[in-house]
Amino acid sequence: MNQGTRQEFRAAALAALIECDQRIKCELVAALWQAHQSHTISLSVETNLPAPEIAGRPARPELVHPARVPKRRLGSAAGRAALLHALAHIEFNAINLALDAIARFADLPAAYYADWLHVASEEAHHFQLLLARLRDLGQDYGDFPAHEGLWEAASKTRHDVLARMGLVPRILEARGLDVTPGLQQRLREVGDEESAAILDIILRDEIGHVAIGNRWFEHLCEVRGLDPADQFLALCRAHGVKTPQPPFNMQAREAAGFSPAELARFLTLAAS
């Protein structure tokens, strides 16, 4: 296999990462996933690629400080649309995060790249589900302001794959496991079963995504001779990040690879 072929997979992920058009980005991810599934593209691991400081995104939504993102009651269609837009924006950023994890970090096992391509594929599917539901409610992606918290986390951890695995899936994405059941209950209380059903799919898949983050964080700690629990706390301190805060969806977190001992430690730290 020649060197050019070995570079093809991560170069294709980079092309999807920098693509600004949301439709084309999702199509590129789907094509890359299909190529991987059909073994018509090879995983490359060695070559450093010029991963961007800012991922490709459309001109809208307007990005604002998190405090300026509108919060509306779910009793109205506009309120539910605002929630779905916020979730769609999270999923769009999650596509970019997964692609960045592929394109930015070299010299990792082939299974690492396959895992994050799988994540990118499912995040694109989530985005498309939310987008379709948002359009059912008379809105579109970009119609509400949004914030860039997820990508800011990617930027802060761009120099070290261990920090990326430790802080993004295990804190930001895992938080979705905790809050999603409450969102579903609120949606069902106002009769929006269609939106709640989409969140069923997202919650199921996100357990797997957090599990992937946990697995590769533990693998990297093992390779570097580090204790995962201690290293996680060290990363939180080094990056000024709070450790996970309760309440926790214990069942989902344990299914995603958090041990009961680690969750108990989080509870103790939060209490103190």
> Tell me, what is the CATH class?
Mainly Alpha
CATH-assigned fold name: Ferritin
How many alpha or pi helices? 11
Number of domains: 1
> Average pLDDT across residues?
91
Query: What is the quaternary state of this protein?
Result: single chain
The biggest sheet amounts to:
none
**Cα radius of gyration in angstroms:** 19 Å
Primary descriptors:
11 helices; disordered N terminus; 68% helix; Ferritin; single chain
Question: Would you kindly provide a brief summary of this structure?
Answer:
With 272 residues, the chain is an all-alpha fold. It is built from eleven helices and no strands. The relative contact order is 0.11.
Secondary-structure blueprint:
Layout: H1 3-6, H2 8-18, H3 22-37, H4 77-104, H5 110-136, H6 149-156, H7 161-189, H8 193-224, H9 228-238, H10 250-255, H11 260-271
Helix pairs in contact: 2-3, 2-4, 3-5, 4-5, 5-8, 6-7, 7-8
